[in-house]
Amino acid sequence: METVKKNNHIGRKIGRIRELRGMKQETLAELLGISQQSVSKIEQSETLDTERLEAVANALGVTPEAIQNFSEELAINYFNNFYDNSFSNSQGTFHPNNCTFNPLDKVVELYERLVQAEKDKVTYLEKLLDKK
Q1: Model pLDDT for residues 16-58, shown as the tens digit of each residue
Q2: Number of domains in the chain
Q3: Do 105 and 83 belong together in one domain?
Q4: How confident is the model at residue 77 (pLDDT cuts 50, 70, 90)?
């Protein structure tokens, strides 16, 4: 039985990482200082020189090794595990939409700080006027 070696198409990996990051080819092109057509050619390339790979990785916010070792299956598995395990604590599962504080208290606190800042500004300006 013969095993088929999977093709390590670096351009497809770059394109998929870019898509997962919600980035358009135009945006990546701007970050790299090249045209959108050049990004398209990169994503069609099976290989990429080290210098270009480092530049693309930097623009995508990943390491060159992350691009070389990227696997769609592993990425999906990672995110599924992250979602399943990241929000648990000793009292059970923490849901990211549940606040651990009262949002109204935070709004009131911010408002009070803004009012105090305005009062301080008025006091400072009055002192400046008194000096003249």
Answers
A1: 989 988 899 999 999 999 999 999 999 999 999 999 999 999 9
A2: 2
A3: no
A4: low
The one-letter code for the residue type at 16 is R
Quote the tokens at residue 113.
């700080």
Confidence of residue 85 (pLDDT cuts 50, 70, 90): very low
Q: Name the β-bridge partners of 92.
A: 89
**2 torsion bin: left (phi>0), alpha (psi -120 to 50), beta (else):** beta
CA distance 98 to 92: 13
- How many residues belong to the chain? 132
- Tell me the HSE value of 128 on the side-chain side, using a 13 A CA sphere: 6
Residue 128 tokens read as 């400046």
- Domain containing 107 equals 100-132
